[in-house]
Write a structure and sequence with these properties.
Elements: H1 6-34, H2 41-48, H3 50-57, H4 59-68, H5 77-93, H6 100-128, H7 134-162, H8 166-191, H9 195-201, H10 203-208, H11 212-224, H12 229-257, H13 263-291, H14 293-311, H15 317-335, H16 338-343, H17 351-380, H18 384-410, H19 413-416
Helix pairs in contact: 1-2, 1-6, 1-7, 1-8, 1-12, 2-17, 3-6, 3-17, 4-6, 5-6, 5-8, 7-8, 7-13, 11-17, 12-13, 12-17, 12-18, 13-14, 13-15, 14-15, 14-18, 17-18
Length: 417
């Protein structure tokens, strides 16, 4: 294994940057394109949840396959070489739909193409980074991913109003160029590793991407364990991701159909949430170190509960952006510590199982959230999306406090901290 290299991590980060660019593009504008044919926001939200079904059923399989593959381009790069160009092609044709069936076919094709390379791209980080530098490298590439989302929300989103296909063309080109750069620069690094080095550096990624059977084994253990604190934490995670993912997927639709904003202005507005999240991601870690992880998350959930409730009453764009800016700070207090909280319950040899459970509960929540909040909008009105999200955050808070109390009684000090 080569020593830690900032340029190499930057190259890996390009993969995260490109994924975030196109994913934010998809989340912002696919609901609006579906709205050309489908009035129901709940149905649109259900279609938007298809990507999370891929997270649950397909991504663990692809990730495990990439662990076993052995080619002249290493284990991961072949998946990028196939998936990224295909996803780019679907982005090019995505805004040129003329019928609902065509848009659905493009949607499914795009999601399947993304499934091919998302997990292998994530797994590149531990492949090219010494084990003792994984956290440092992960911070860099996640920051780059956040920059990608902001690039879409504050740059490409404005282009959508003037030239609908242009943001998709740019997103597709970025994806293709990022994939090409990764393959050209990293080929020798990933192809020349010895078998022993592959096993050593692949420990984390193998643990994170187990086959579905491993996830089911972990779920059975959590459900039958006398200490219910891990189960309560997973339920809390489910509810806070329902509240977050639903607003993320439905806000652009709310802005256009209820506030009367343009598509680009609506996407730009939700971008203030992402901007604050990125800016406060690192300070969130320092705060948790000082006052404890669970206390930090409790502050974050409480803040989100109040702010989403406030958005029910506020309809002025500048005020909404200010509230979303504060919301991004509180979401950083929650999301940065979600995964570490789950694996704090894992004993030796079970990190992978609990990682799988984290992705299972968060992915199911991200499937349910857009449909649930869309139903609230259909039945009660657009602003009721925020009430549904507030209720989800309140339920998450109840289960997290219950988990902390249970952990304290059972002596799980780390999990309760």
């Amino acid at each position: 294994m080569k020593p830690f290299s900032y340029p190499r991590i930057f190259i890996v980060g390009l993969g995260f940057f490109s994924i975030s660019v196109v994913w934010q593009l998809y989340n912002s504008f696919m609901p609006l394109m579906l709205g050309d044919f489908i009035e129901s926001k709940a149905l649109r939200g259900s279609i938007m949840g298809l990507d999370n079904l891929a997270n649950i059923f397909l991504i663990p399989f692809v990730a495990a396959w990439s662990d076993r593959l052995n080619t002249g381009y290493g284990k991961r790069l072949p998946f990028l070489m196939v998936g990224m160009p295909i996803a780019a092609v679907f982005l090019f044709i995505m805004p040129h739909y003329t019928a609902l069936w065509m848009l659905i076919v493009i949607d499914i094709g795009f999601l399947l193409a993304m499934t091919i390379f998302r997990a292998p791209t994530i797994s590149l980080m531990p492949d090219v980074t010494p084990a003792d530098k994984h956290s440092q490298a992960n911070g860099i590439i996640n920051f780059m991913g956040g920059i990608g989302a902001l690039f879409t929300l504050f740059g490409l989103a404005k282009m959508y109003d003037a030239n609908k296909p242009l943001p998709f063309y740019i997103g597709g080109i970025i994806l293709f160029l990022a994939g090409t750069t990764l393959v050209v620069v990293l080929r020798k690094t990933v192809a020349n590793k010895a078998d022993g080095e592959q096993k050593k550096t692949g420990e984390d990624s193998q643990g994170e991407h187990e086959l579905p059977q491993g996830v089911l084994t972990g779920l059975k253990k959590v459900l039958t364990d006398k200490d219910r604190s891990a189960l309560y934490v997973l339920i809390a995670i489910f509810f806070w991701f329902v509240g977050y993912s639903g607003v993320e997927a439905q806000f652009t639709t709310y802005g256009v159909e209820d506030l009367g904003l343009s598509e680009g202005t609506s996407a730009l507005t939700i971008g203030f949430f992402s901007l604050a999240f990125i800016m406060f991601a690192v300070p969130s870690g320092f705060l948790a170190k000082k006052i404890g992880r669970v206390r930090t998350i409790i502050i974050g959930i409480s803040g989100l509960f109040l702010l989403f409730l406030l958005l029910f009453f506020v309809h002025e764009v500048t005020a909404i952006r200010g509230i979303l800016l504060a919301g991004g700070i509180f979401w950083a207090l929650v999301n940065i510590h979600s995964y570490p909280l789950v694996v704090s319950f894992a004993g030796p040899g079970r990190i992978g199982l609990y990682t799988g459970l984290y992705y299972l509960f968060s992915s199911v929540a991200s499937t349910v959230g857009p449909a649930f909040l869309g139903l609230c909008m259909d039945v009660l009105g657009g602003e009721w999306m925020f009430v549904g999200s507030s209720v989800s955050m309140l339920l998450a808070l109840v289960f997290l406090i219950r988990a902390r109390q249970t952990a304290i009684r059972s002596g799980s000090v780390q999990a309760a901290a």
